[in-house]
Each structure stands twice: as C-alpha cells, then as structure tokens.
Amino acid sequence: MTDFKQDHPDGLIVAMDEMSLYLQATTQRVWFPVGQRPLIRVSPQRDCQHWYGALCLNHGQEVALSVPRLDSQTTIHFLTHLLTIFPTQPILLFLDRATWHRGQAIRTFLADHPRLELLYFPPACPHLNPQEHVWKAARHAVSHNHTFLTLAALRTAFAHFLDTTRFQFRWVEKFAPLNMCGL
Length: 183
Fold this sequence. Notes:
By secondary structure, this protein is an alpha/beta fold. It has one domain (about 1-25, about 40-165): 2-Layer Sandwich (Nucleotidyltransferase, domain 5). Helices cover about 35% and strands about 20% of the residues. The protein has six helices and five strands, in the order αβββαβαβααα. The protein has helices at about 1-5, 70-85, 105-110, 130-145, 150-165, 170-175; strands spanning about 10-20, 50-55, 60-65, 90-95, 115-120. Strand 4, helix 3 (about 105-110) and strand 5 form a beta-alpha-beta unit. Helix 4 packs across helix 5.
C-alpha cells in the first residue's frame, strides 16, 4: 500500500464488498415507553436485493449499486461503474476472496484496466473491511426494526442513506501498525 501511494500520490484507496438486503425485518434493541411493547411487522417473503458497495477511504464517498445477482459478470459491471465514478485516478481496491472476485474473467478485465489494482483481504477477516462497517451503519439506520411494506421502498431508503452519508473510517491509521499478510 505504501508503494501504491508513493507511485500514485493522487491514487484512491477503496474497499469493496457485497451484501443482500431482505424485506424481513431484523431486530435490535430500542428505547420504548415502559409498559408498551414495540411492534415490528414481519414479512413472510424471502425476497432480497443484492448490493455491491465500495468506500473510498481517501474521502469517505460511498459508491453502491443494487444488482440482481452476485457473480463475476456483476463484479465486472461494478468495477466498470467504479472506474466511471473515478475516471482518472489510479485505484487500489481492497476486497474479500469471494469466488466471483477471482477467475479468468476478472483477470482479463484487470489486464484491460491497468489503473485498477486489486488487493485481497486475508481470509476470514471481515472486520478489516471498512465496507462491512458501511453495511452495518446502513442496516442500523434503515433496515433494523423497519416498517417497509415493499422491497422497492426498502431499497430506495437504503440507497438514499448510502448516497447521502459520508463514512469516515480511519482504516489506514487503525491498521497501519499491523502487518496484515504483507499489506
């Protein structure tokens, strides 16, 4: 990472991840008047909406797309979107080791887009990925204890939160002292 910033002072460091958002409410603790019980509508539907998200660690901008599935072609679609959002800067992209982040299609895409460099997180270390913290904040703000009647309404509220929130996560300062498998 140090070499990347030395070689590309204007370069962006970005962390990427995916998640699935379900219409079924997830619960968390809430304050409520004594003697009253909170009611949470539970949907019997298992419909979900998948998301790709990337957090720019330089300035806290979130880039997110709702997508129909999680696979290599969708990953390439999202990487293309990321290169469009940041059209000139070199990008060091941290991501997990999901099968759809690797493979020949991804290697071919990277060969055609040299300003994008991938660096994989160590296995079983989601706490290192700042994008996981974005998902947690978004779920806390939008989907926990929700009352959305449709997946479309939930997706719209989720997208609005992601589009209008700056996520400051001091990842480099937090993890720089660690030797994260050569990072």
